Amino acid sequence: MEQYMKNGIPSSGYVLIATNSWLGMGKVATKDAFDWIATEPPILVASSIIARLLNDLLSHEEEQKRGDATSSVECYMNDYGVTKRGSTHEIRNKIKNYWKDLNEEYFKVDVAITPRVLLMPIINLTRVAEFIHKDEDAYTFSKNNLKHVISKILVDPII
Fold first, then answer.
1. Helix ranges, 23-109 (H)
2. Quick one: pLDDT band at residue 66, thresholds 50, 70, 90?
């Protein structure tokens, strides 16, 4: 499970997305800030792992049917000899703890190097992951609820 978590950071894509989100932010995104994010700080690690684990909880059965790589659910079951239910319960606890880490790190970051405005894309990406994986893997099955929600936001917003 530990090795899976390490691999989950780059495979979530959040390091790349968070870094790219800074490109249009002007002078506030300094070289020092980019150097900082390149170190994979704890706030970014927590965000990445939350996204990876949320995805695994809802997509692991479909991925297993397709013969994809083992997910955190299976890794936890194998490493600790627990049932699928026990594994998903523990992974949900891990997600809660990583949210605590993310929130704690938000207040620890040196704002002289990385202003809060640069941290918000990391926080917001994590919020998006929670939303997309609330009831189903809405990213994979986007024709269901996600398509409707995006339409409501962009096409027919409540103002």
1. 31-38, 42-66, 72-80, 84-108
2. low
With CA atoms as reference, report the closest residue to 85 among 24, 39, 93. 93
Average pLDDT, the chain: 85
Q: Please give the domain boundaries of the chain with CATH numbers for all domains.
A: 2-154 (1.10.600.10)
DSSP sequence for 104-122 = HHHHHS-TTTS-HHHHHHH
Cβ atoms of 128 and 142 closer than 8 Å? no
Measure the CA angle with vertex 82, ends 77 and 85; round to 5°.
90
- Cα 54 off chain centre by: 7
Q: Tally Cβ neighbours within 10 Å of residue 145.
A: 14
